[in-house]
Amino acid sequence: MRVTLFGASGLLGRELVPVLAGTELTALSLEDADLRDAGRIREVVSQSQPDLIILAAAYTDVDGCESNRDLALSVNCEGAVHVALAARQGGARLMFLSTDYVFDGSKGAPYETGDPRNPISVYGESKARAEARLLEILPEVCIVRTSWLFGHGGKCFPATILNLAARLEIRVVNDQRGSPTYTRDLARTLAELCRKQARGIVHVTNAGNCTWYEFAKEIVAHAGLAAEVKPVATAEFPRPARRPAYSVLSPASLHAYGIQMPDWKDALARYLAEVRIPGKSLENTGT
Ligand SMILES: NC(=O)c1ccc[n+]([C@@H]2O[C@H](COP(=O)([O-])OP(=O)(O)OC[C@H]3O[C@@H](n4cnc5c(N)ncnc54)[C@H](OP(=O)(O)O)[C@@H]3O)[C@@H](O)[C@H]2O)c1
Fold first, then answer.
1. Among the options 59, 101, 111, 123, which is catalytic?
2. What residues flank ligand 1, with Cβ below 6 Å?
3. pTM of the model
4. How far apart are CA 174 and CA 167, in angstroms?
5. For residue range 82-122, what is the model confidence (pLDDT) as tens digits?
6. Is 123 a catalytic residue?
């Protein structure tokens, strides 16, 4: 099986590479092929002749997208279209990574795959548009929506909280609810969905949900840090992009493939077991 992976250097891509080790893998980052360059995308796809393309590359700076709308749309939507057209031309299947931010967050109950998209940020809009275009171009496409990624080798929320560990107090928003997702669990599940030749929209997150405040509390408690985590409202932390207040994704579409994801707290514990906790090694060695 030949697989071409776009976004191999990203947070998720780094976990996908080892999971795909048993395939004939072409792993690409921005410097290998810019999604905005239709000719280059056609070229790399025709050279690698994949059976399957995984599109994990994106412009993921949610706040940056607000001030760089053209860039967001050209990478996340037009870029995805370039990949879908190349996949269609080469007869390859396509798996596309999308986001909970295609929803506005007003539902107040887990989002099902068929719920209407109504993004409230440019990033969400760029992904929502891409989803619609891809379903037109390649009706067999598999669109995986995920959320709140954390993992090794890049910026993520737990790493940020650990970096703030020396503070006495960490203030975190308590009015946005979603499902944290460990890139290692996600990568394994994506590979399984590929094996099962999944198609249509599938929601893949770790099980359970929390607010960012609850997430931070769990990180601090599990890491044994002294910092106090204080809940605050989003209004106290104005950011360029609006975020959905509630973006929990229903796992029904994943369960339909007979796949269960571990709980986010279990995933966080496994992640923390592999990262250096500031101050911990000193305490442990008594030095
Ligand atoms: N992070 C989250 O919380 C989250 C939540 C929901 C959905 N998602 C989606 O999940 C996927 C993976 O996210 P991630 O967090 O792993 O992303 P990431 O860490 O930001 O990595 C992005 C990847 O895309 C590549 N890239 C950026 N611009 C590109 C361009 N113009 N052409 C080609 N490649 C480009 C980057 O290459 P370089 O390293 O060379 O720059 C990198 O490999 C994305 O589709 C994202 O939208 C992420």
1. 123
2. 6-13, 29-31, 34-36, 56-60, 75, 79, 97, 99, 146-149, 154
3. 0.96
4. 19
5. 999 999 999 999 999 999 999 999 999 999 999 999 999 99
6. yes
